[in-house]
Design a protein that fits this description.
The chain is of the alpha+beta class. The protein has 2 domains: about 40-95; about 105-225, Protein of unknown function DUF881 (Alpha-Beta Plaits, 2-Layer Sandwich). It is built from 7 helices and 8 strands, in the order αααβααββββββααβ. A hairpin with a 2-residue loop joins β5 (about 175) and β6. It starts with a helix and ends in an 18-residue tail after the last strand. This is Division initiation protein. Keywords: Membrane, Transmembrane, Transmembrane helix. InterPro entries: DUF881. Belongs to the UPF0749 family.
Length: about 240
């Protein structure tokens, strides 16, 4: 009888172990499950959505360019759908993006003056005078911030800022596109007005640093900003296209 009880106990134990194994339950004490926190999950979720958007944008650009390429290759022409007109439109669009066309749109105007007292413009302390002077390096930082915040076109005292525009200190002037510009500096930028103003006025912006140094800065929202085209020539001496083989 005792022998049968032992067999029954072993049989029941074997069934229990089999059930646990079937449910993939690890009996070892060293095995620990890793859990993702709410913050980590949210970060991974946002990262995934960002990648999805980037992939979608790339696919859309690829589709549009592929469609355009096939259209040009076909040489198809009829009334209202002339390949020459499409090429001209494409050229004008590229000129606008590069800065060779006059443009307009909503945006902001920034007026910058050195931080000197108008009644007593002379500051004896050289360090204080340096801190309250708006330099070319300050202008470079400000241009970079405007681009980061979404400015689509920028001009400074009427000079269009191009991809190859220099911002150089020329004594009491700042040189842009080979033209010496005096203070005060009027910076015009076309873009999302709300985004530009909010970012420029944020506590960690470069504008706040300049104001902390005593530089006078006024930011105005404009319903219409008109920016002239670049009138110089873009000279290329060393660049060559790489043709696909």
């Amino acid at each position: 009888m005792r022998l049968n009880e032992g067999k029954i106990f072993i049989f029941i134990a074997a069934i229990i172990v089999g059930i646990l194994v079937s449910f993939n339950i690890d009996l070892s004490k060293d095995n620990k499950k890793e859990y993702v926190s709410t913050k980590e999950y949210q970060e991974m979720y946002n990262k995934r959505n960002k990648l999805y958007r980037e992939v979608s944008d790339v696919r859309e650009d690829y589709y549009n360019n592929y469609k355009k390429l096939n259209f040009f290759k076909s040489g198809y022409v009829d009334e209202g759908n002339n390949i020459v007109d499409n090429i001209v439109d494409e050229l004008e669009n590229n000129k606008t993006l590069l800065g060779y066309n006059k443009v307009e749109g909503i945006g902001i105007e920034i007026t910058i003056r050195d931080g000197f007292d108008e009644i007593n413009p002379d500051i004896e302390d050289p360090l204080l005078r340096y801190m309250r002077t708006f330099h070319n390096t300050d202008l470079i930082q400000l241009i970079n911030e405007l681009k980061i915040f979404g400015a689509e076109a920028i001009s400074i005292n009427g000079q269009r800022v191009m991809t190859n525009s220099e911002v150089y200190c020329s004594s009491a002037f700042i040189s842009i596109n080979g033209v010496k510009l005096p203070s005060p500096f009027h910076i015009e930028a076309i873009g999302n007005t709300e985004s530009l103003v909010n970012n420029l006025k944020s506590n960690d912006s470069y504008v706040k640093r300049l104001q902390g140094r005593g530089i006078n800065i006024v930011i105005e929202e404009k319903d219409v900003i008109v920016i002239s085209s670049y009138i110089g020539d873009l000279k290329v001496n060393f660049l060559t296209n790489i043709k696909n083989k």
